[in-house]
Amino acid sequence: MKKDKIPKNRDIEEMFLGSDEEDVETRMSKNTRMQRKSNLRQQFFDDALQEKVGAFILDIKMAYYKEGVGDISLEVVKQGRDIIIKTHPKISGKNR
Description:
By secondary structure, this protein is of the alpha+beta class. Helices cover 47% and strands 17% of the residues.
C-alpha cells in the first residue's frame, strides 16, 4: 500500500487551495436569525400557556382512553383570529 506524501513548507493559500470554506460570520448570522424566530414564537407561547394547553390535551386524551381509543391525532387550525386544536382518534395505515 502506497502512502501519499504530504508536502512540507507550504503557505496558507496552498494549504487551503480547493477547500470550500463558509464564512463564520455568515453561519453565525443564520443561527442568530433562527434563534430570534424561536424567541419570537416562545414569547407568545410562554410556559404558563404551554402548561394550560398541555393539561387540556391530557384531559382529552384520558377521555379518549376511557372510551377505548389508544392514540389520538392533533390538528391545529386557524379560523379568523382564533386558533383551534382539533382532536380525533389516530387512524392506522391498515384501516385507511
